[in-house]
Amino acid sequence: MRKLLFQVAALLVAAGAMSACTGTPGPVSPSSATATAGTSGTSDTSGAPAPDTETSVPAPAPPSSPAPSGPGAGNAELAIMVRPSEAEPALSYTLVCQNGLPAAESKHPAADAACAALKNNAALLSPSIKGSAQACTEQYGGPQQATVTGIVDETPVDVTFARTNGCEISAWDAAREILGVAGGAP
């Protein structure tokens, strides 16, 4: 009898999980499936679902890993926004590279150099994580700011650049060709 109750509880949990995945209402809601699972002994007394109980909350996406340094395939699709200063309007570029060469839809002042730079070092747009234990010189390189979003060699990119300390100035200088003419701060 106990084995039959356990199988029925497992079927109800599965049916509830399937209806949660399909978005259509099923015969069992996830809350009643949890309550049923709790009566079968698979949940603790705090009311929390057992570790093996499926929930409708998606797992967080894994953190994107930085692109490996060194030569890459040279494929990119990027939106680049450079703000020379607070008083000046932002400049926007589009960079599309295929095998290290700019595609026709690129709207970038130095697309050849930018695509070549990405092909030679795919990690240019993966600077070290801010707030890391890296020591940086306290120097001011200027008010320039830049944002680059898109994909480089199938790796998502969403990075900001500034010139507020030695580490950020170094990252800016390394990505100078990608940031375009406006990115070439003195």
Could you please describe the fold and organization of this structure?
This protein is 29% helix and 18% strand. With 186 residues, it is α+β, with helices and mostly antiparallel strands. It has a 5-stranded antiparallel sheet. Helix 1 runs antiparallel to helix 2. It is extended and about 70 Å long. The termini are far apart.
- CATH topology tier name of the largest domain: Subtilisin Inhibitor
Instruction: Give the beta-strand count.
Output: 5
Mean pLDDT: 74
Question: Tell me about the biggest sheet?
Answer: 5 strands, antiparallel
How many domains, as an integer? 2
User: What is the straight-line distance between the termini?
Assistant: 80 Å
H/I helix tally: 5
Beta-sheet strand percentage? 15-25%
Please report the first level of CATH classification, the CATH class of the largest domain: Alpha Beta
Concise account of the structure shown:
It contains five helices and five strands; from the N terminus they run H-H-E-E-E-H-E-E-H-H. It has two domains: 1-59, no CATH class; 76-183, 2-Layer Sandwich (Subtilisin Inhibitor), CATH 3.30.350. It has helices at 2-22, 30-39, 111-120, 166-174, 176-179, and strands at 76-83, 91-98, 101-102, 145-152, 155-162.
